[in-house]
Amino acid sequence: MRWVLIGAVGAMLASATAQAASPFTGLLLQGSGTTRTVSCNNTSVMVEGARNAVTITGHCNGLIVRGDSNQVSVPLIGAATLDIEGNHNRVRTSSTPDATPQLQMVGEANELTSSPLGVAPAADSATIFGNGLNVELDCNAKPVTFESVNSHLKLRGVCPSLTLRGEANLVEANLASGADVTIAGNAISLLYRVAADAAPPNFAILGMDSLALPANSLASALTQGTPPAKLPVALLLQLLNAQVQASGTIVRLPPAAFNSTGVSPSGALILQRLAGLIVQAWPNSMKIIGQEDDPGAGKQLATVVSEYLVSHGVPGLTADILGQHGERAVVVQLLN
After folding, report:
1. DSSP H helical segments within 160-243, as ranges?
2. pLDDT value at residue 223
3. Mean pLDDT lowest for which of 118-122, 240-244, 267-271?
4. Of 116, 133, 203, 308, which sees the most CB atoms within 10 A?
5. What CA–CA distance (Å, rounded) separates 175 from 302?
6. pLDDT confidence of 119, banded at 50, 70, 90?
7. Beta-bridge mates of residue 63
8. CATH classification of 228-335, choosing from 3.10.20.320, 3.20.10.10, 1.20.120.1460, 3.30.1330.60?
9. Residues with Cβ < 8 Å from 72, sequence gap 6 or more?
10. Which residues have a Cβ under 8 Å from the Cβ of 108 and sit 6 or more positions away?
């Protein structure tokens, strides 16, 4: 299988061009807050709206999702197209062994999961591009290249080689014996597994604060249920992509850390690590600064972070809660 995730500008242009050239003629599902099951019968389906839960049966040659917080399950065949535009959409695909689906994804915190395939397809590699992704795919014993910023990629199957580029990514993978791994970028964390009798991977790591660690190491403890407070401070600083200065430590939570209901799954992972850091290196004082177009809304965002930390292992937290104008984010300052 060859998945290609195109960046925001390219995907918008491609989508706009396709729609202008040929209006959508498949099955159109519109609405908000609906739950439905439909059969696509070798055609394409478009889901348009918000908070819809759609189960698609049969065999589909394409899926288009437009909107936010939709959940869609779809079986794809052949050279199917998968076009997602919006935020916080969750799409699960299953594919026939000969499928070579092509993906365009635009937005924040969209999640894509593909079911394992029984037979490896003919494509000789997988190339994945995009930012703010949460993707789970099968590498099907093929080389994988992943280029992204602030994303989480989980690879099933066994990968013979892996190339990671970008910044602030977390990648989980099973590696073949003697696999070649190149990490080129800053704050990229790779958690890997190899068979007990396998030769160790060959690593080439270029950049600052990037690391590759066995999945049975302490770095994988967050996904294995070990409290973050038991992780080494140095490792937490790396995983948080923290800025350590003379006056203290700064951790920035990006827009993808939040959704319409509060903290997103990716944001929860960041805050659990931050809680572990605070417990071990208790600062003299703290500032939590929320940024939004409206400073009042920014302060509310900072309050959400404070309340999450209090309820997840930092019960005695006291911090200055501030709001300011800016691009949506939260900056946490741990002051010496």
Report:
1. 221-224, 233-239
2. 46
3. 118-122
4. 133
5. 40
6. very low
7. 45, 82
8. 3.30.1330.60
9. 47, 52, 53, 54, 55, 56, 63, 65, 89, 90, 91, 92
10. 87, 88, 132, 255, 256
275/310 Cα distance (integer angstroms): 9
Closest alpha carbon to 164 in 150, 178, 144 = 144
Strand 111-114 vs strand 27-32: parallel, antiparallel, or unpaired? Answer: unpaired
How far is the CA of 58 from the CAs of 31, 69, 234, in angstroms?
22, 24, 50
Kindly report, residue by residue over 202-215, the tens digit of the pLDDT: 999 887 767 787 87
pTM over 0.70: no
> Which of 329, 208, 331 has the alpha carbon at shortest distance from 274?
331
Place of tokens 């960041």: 270
Say how far apart CA 272 and CA 290 lie, in whole Å.
Answer: 18
Which residues, at least 6 apart from 317, have a Cβ–Cβ distance to it below 8 Å? 278, 286, 306, 309, 310
